[in-house]
Amino acid sequence: MNKRGKYTTLNLEEKMKVLSRIEAGRSLKSVMDEFGISKSTFYDIKKNKKLILDFVLKQDMPLVGAEKRKRTTGAKYGDVDDAVYMWYQQKRSAGVPVRGVELQAAAERFAQCFGRTDFKASTGWLFRFRNRHAIGNRKVCGEQVLSSASENVEPFRQKLSMIIKEERLCLAQLYSGDETDLFWKSMPENSQASRKDICLPGKKINKERLSALLCANADGTHKLKSIIIGKAKLPKSVKEDTSTLPVIYKPSRDVWFTRELFSEWFFQNFVPEVRHFQLNVLRFHEEDVRALLILDSSPAHPSSESLTSEDGRIKCVFFPHNTSTLIQPMNQGVILSCKRLYRWKQLEESLVIFEESDDEQEKRDKGVSKIKIYNIKSAIFNWAKSWDEVKQITIANAWENLLYKKEPECDFQGLEDGDYREILEKCGELETKLDDDRAWLNGDEEKGCLLKTNGGIIKEVTQKGGDAEKQTAAFKLSAVRESLDYLLDFVDATPEFQRFHFTLKEMQQEIVKKQFQSKIHSRIGSFLKPRPHNSKDSFSGPSTSASNH
Length: 549
Hints:
Blueprint: H1 12-23, H2 28-35, H3 39-47, H4 49-58, H5 62-68, H6 78-93, H7 100-113, H8 123-132, H9 143-167, E1 174-183, E2 209-217, E3 227-230, E4 248-251, H10 259-281, E5 291-295, E6 314-318, H11 324-327, H12 334-350, H13 360-373, H14 376-389, H15 392-398, H16 400-404, H17 417-426, H18 434-442, H19 454-470, H20 477-493, H21 501-528
Parallel strand pairs: 1-5, 3-4, 5-6
Antiparallel strand pairs: 1-2, 2-3
Helix pairs in contact: 1-4, 1-5, 6-7, 6-19, 7-18, 12-14, 17-18, 19-21, 20-21
């Protein structure tokens, strides 16, 4: 029997299992005992069968979506969410990659059409949208690969759970590490420096690259020193010994990790640092020192057998192929937070706050001289500071999906796209666009094309909303609201019914929202009616780098 607390909430995958037991004719008591749920929870799941199945099947990868979510409540702006997701699915079905910046641009255009003036396609919105629809931050791949990846997630969880129990590991002894690119000198397109043709090639994002590895334990109490891979043996700007740097610096011709470099890091840095942390910080006894490092299945990583300490207590295990974007903790907001913090520090050092008397030429000259000063040593120190500033709670939350099947929460307060736009504007960078800033911040470069017209998507979403309203077509919203007002007056005047006040109040608020939305939909309907062409009024849909067809 699965012993759960009285008020435990099942995730969607578990609710689907409950539904399958009901379909198989299992008794009420046996299902309640297996899942540790109350009778009311059982009947709630049974009553909401259609809602649960529809929600799960709607996801980009249904199995992963079911594992991560507990509720079937949609986005705050459901029409915008539906339109963006429909647009995304079109491109995905055509095998076209979709950038995060394109999703944000699509959301803002659709929100404008739906009259959602208070909607913001922030980094947090993008993070939640991807989680809501189980969309990994990755290039689009074939259905077979995605299906195989999602099917491998749960078996790996079970394997990991067994290892944790057998080795008696606590959260502080679980580690995850991941590599990432860092275009350390890049600036947004159309900035003063990019227009001046210094070392930045034309108006393109600078491609001077470093590779970095970040590694931390599951409760965020131990962040290991980051390793940086560069092309030169010793950067010219680094005059002191590399051992004094706040990172571990290693040269590589391809500026990427090799098996030799990774093995060297594991035995010379990871194992000693983990031992030191557990003995001197956690105050563990020598015989209790152990750890498990979880990594991607990458050609740059040696086999798990060769990544084992001499005493066999510090080991390594690999995520199944193609699952790291789904459950790898470092990909659940940790690396993104570190990169955003780095970009902030880079801007502080690279940009100039101009005087009012400066003309355009002086602004360009000052901007260029400031960017030229920014060197690889500055980048290394800023990267190390950024890693230090990644919050413990950010790292701990990133493990929620892998360990507990919970949707990870990531706090991007102060690191949203608009925050960077503000500092760019203060420094006179008025010609860069928000899309330029996002492409620079996100660093993704996939390009694609649009298939269905945006007007068609808007019309379909609007009609979809209309179909839902048909279920209540027999009732006038104004009459329902009037009845609720009457009921609320009765409840307020009758003590034994006052416990229903908040429920009725919530219903009243929802009816008001529906009335408002019906007005918005009527406006959109008139917007979609044919009218004389006017270039100023024409709707330009979410743009992509390729031409629309």
